[in-house]
Design brief:
CATH architecture: Orthogonal Bundle
Number of helices: 4
Shape: flat
Number of domains: 1
Strand content: 5-15%
Oligomer: single chain
Distance between the termini: 10 Å
Helix content: 55-70%
Strand order of the largest sheet: 1-2
Radius of gyration: 15 Å
Length: 109
């Protein structure tokens, strides 16, 4: 489960949103100039990570669950900039459509 909006203050959430958007902009420029041929692989890898992160595995004795963290897989396949962009989109979709985390906490997640 991702961090929910109730765990952070609006000031912290807003600050981290600005930071995430700044890193997203820089990452988009890097990907656009250095990896345009990897766009199809980015789409397929993003879809795989999205689907894999939707499968929750319960953690015994904690009452909580966990899921695959796809950041390392994406970064090793496509580089850190592309991985950041893909995960930002995946987390945004999960927050908006599946209430997994929150929009205010998106920068933290």
């Amino acid at each position: 489960m991702h961090m929910s909006d109730a765990l952070i203050s609006p000031a912290v959430g807003g600050t981290l949103w600005v930071a995430a958007l700044a890193v997203s902009r820089r990452s988009a420029r890097q990907v656009e100039h250095h990896q345009p041929e990897d766009l199809p692989l980015m789409g397929v890898a993003g879809a795989f990570v999205f689907a894999a992160q939707m499968i929750n595995v319960s953690i015994p004795g904690t009452g909580s669950s966990g899921h695959l963290g796809g950041g390392l897989l994406l970064a090793s396949l496509l580089g850190p900039e592309a991985a950041f962009l893909i995960l930002f989109v995946v987390l945004f979709i999960q927050a908006v459509f599946f209430a997994d985390g929150g929009l205010l906490a998106l920068g933290c997640n």
